[in-house]
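User: Second chain of the day. Same drill as before.
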Amino acid sequence: MKKTDWIRLVIAVAISLVFVKTGAIKLPLGSTLIRHSPVVVYGEPMLKPLIVTARKSVYTAKGIIERATEGVPVKVSLTQYCLKGETRRGRFVRPGIVASDPRLFPLARYVEVYMGEKYIGRYLVDDTGGNVKGATLDIWTPSCRQATRFGRQWGQAILVARDEEQIPHPAPIEINEIQDLRAIGSLLDGLAKR
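Assistant: Same format as last time:
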């Protein structure tokens, strides 16, 4: 070893003794250093649960949109759409879903739809749309022709309570089976043939 290396070693020992004497570093005498792989300690922080709720009403240029409450009928405009792809919640479109304004009917909830006294079915609110504003439900159908023939109808929708969502319900009827719509469809078909 060179003279400069000895000087550096003496200085390092002196500094370490100062740290040990002052208590900045505590080393047990006669201990040996054990080398092992590091131990990863992981724990999740304990946070209080956060409950987020939407406002009861939303103010828009056209007026106030009241959020639907469970079991209370809401007058809605019914339309149909036939787009393919994914819904707002990232699922593929399928029978039994509707698009709605999430300010009125929250996503991932069920609504029961009536046209007059006729029960249409229970639908999952799984989608939103650019033209679905306020009290409008847009029912998905695989046929674009049926969606065009359906047009705009008026009915009522009832938000299903969470505890009743798991109760079995009758299957939604095909909207083609409604007598009024079949008559409208045959009238349109007759006009198209002329």
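Helices lie at 3-22, 144-150, 179-193.

User: Great, on to the next one.
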